[in-house]
Design brief:
By secondary structure, the protein is α+β, with helices and mostly antiparallel strands. It folds into three domains: about 60-120, SH3 Domains (SH3 type barrels), CATH 2.30.30.40; about 130-190, SH3 Domains (SH3 type barrels); about 220-360, Glucose Permease (Domain IIA) (Distorted Sandwich), CATH 2.70.70.10. The protein has helices at about 1-50, 185-190; strands spanning about 60-65, 70-75, 80-85, 90-95, 100-110, 110-120, 130, 135-140, 145-150, 155-165, 165-175, 175-185, 220, 225, 230, 235, 245, 250-260, 265-280, 285-295, 315-325, 330-335, 345-350, 355. Strands 13, 16, 17, 18, 19, 20, 21, 22, 23 and 24 form a ten-stranded antiparallel sheet that branches. Strands 6-5-4-1-12-11-10-7 form an eight-stranded mixed sheet.
């Protein structure tokens, strides 16, 4: 009798253990399903939070900043709250692209971070035409930078824009895409069709004869004392917001916006919308300030009406760069930033030293 009781207890124990194992197996299955469901919900939520509309290759687009220097990262798409720094040696993963900002993931000491940077820091444009490559082409991280790989024959290449003697492209690689640069000569030879070419303004042989930055009839009002330098800098006679400004020589223009965050809103301050010009021979540099708008490869992060007459700024936004010819319209005079009226604040430097513009530009007085 005792033996039967022992077997009965053993049988009951084994049945109980089997029931427990069955329950644990079911729990594990439900847990895995729950994890999968949670992951799907998280993905859906992430798509909703960050705008929902994402390219299929958004997580696999790699690139470097156009500049080899440091780039400020922001925690918001307004680009007003500093978040960190991207170094020139950092490879980025591009998560989202708009005409104003890009959301990127970049390396830090303990992993990665995701933040916002101006689109112009990595892209010359956000759209372009697709072409079929006719041969292998070496790509570069940035204009004049290190090799970044190559485009193979028959790859589909999207051309985004030009930067000096380089052309920026988006091309396929294993697991995604890269944004990179190729020489414009190679773009003409291997990317565009035989009938299509892209020309870049060549360096002028002689930029000693400068053109006027404004139309005939526009004048400086008076000589002014500006930061220890006595001379001209404000053109405010015969101007309006419809008055264009011109490149004084062949060279490069960079479109910028000086801003502050005031009452939670990004406002143009200091120079407001301004252009930095560099002549192709490297002799002259100029600033065109308080502009109403730009002309060329540019876009406004902050609209011109969001302006405040305040000196100084928290930072500047780069709105694009373009090669220009002497006499080309590059913007329009305005009243953005620390400006009490419509005028052009024009500064000119020769070999790094600030000079009186009327001493080298004929007809300007």
């Amino acid at each position: 009798m005792r033996r039967n009781e022992i077997y009965s207890e053993k049988e009951a124990f084994e049945k109980k253990a089997k029931r427990k194992e069955k329950v644990m197996t079911m729990k594990r299955k439900f847990f895995k399903k729950g994890m999968l469901f949670g992951a799907l919900v998280a993905v859906a939520a992430g798509a909703f939070v960050f705008g929902g509309r994402k390219d299929a290759d958004a997580a696999t687009r790699k690139c470097y900043t156009i500049s080899s220097g440091n780039t400020t990262v922001y925690s918001n798409s307004c680009l007003s709250s500093r978040y960190g720094t991207i170094f020139g040696s950092d490879e980025l993963t591009v998560q989202d692209v708009t005409g104003r900002y890009c959301r990127v993931t970049y390396p830090v000491s303990r992993g990665t971070k995701t933040g916002y940077i101006p689109t112009g820091a990595i892209l010359t444009g956000t759209t372009g035409n697709d072409y079929r490559a006719r041969g292998r082409v070496t790509t570069y991280k940035r204009p004049g930078g290190a090799s970044y790989g190559y485009i193979d024959a028959n790859d589909t290449v999207k051309v985004l824009g030009t930067y000096g003697s380089y052309t920026q492209v988006k091309y396929p690689v294993s697991g995604g895409y890269k944004y990179a640069f190729i020489t414009t000569s190679n773009a003409n030879a291997y990317i565009y069709s035989q009938q299509q070419t892209v020309t870049v303004a060549p360096a002028a042989n002689n930029n000693t004869d400068l053109g006027s930055p404004v139309p005939s009839g526009c004048r400086f009002n008076r000589k002014t004392y500006d930061n220890g330098w006595y001379g001209f800098h404000d053109i405010n006679i015969g101007v309006s917001t419809a008055t264009p400004v011109y490149a004084i020589a062949d060279g490069t223009v960079t479109y910028k916006q000086a801003y502050r965050l005031l009452s939670g809103v990004c406002k143009l301050t200091s120079y407001g919308n301004f252009i930095e010009f560099r002549s192709s021979n490297g002799v002259y540099n100029a600033k065109y300030c308080h502009l109403n708008r730009f002309v060329g490869n540019s876009y406004l992060y902050i609209q011109s009406y969001n302006t405040r007459q305040v000196s100084g700024s928290e930072g500047t936004l780069s709105c694009g760069t373009k090669y220009v010819r002497k006499g080309e319209i590059i913007g329009y005079i305005g009243q953005t930033g620390n400006a009490s009226g419509v005028h052009l604040h024009f500064e000119l430097r020769k070999n790094g030293t600030r000079i009186d513009p009327t001493s080298v530009i004929s007809g300007l007085y």
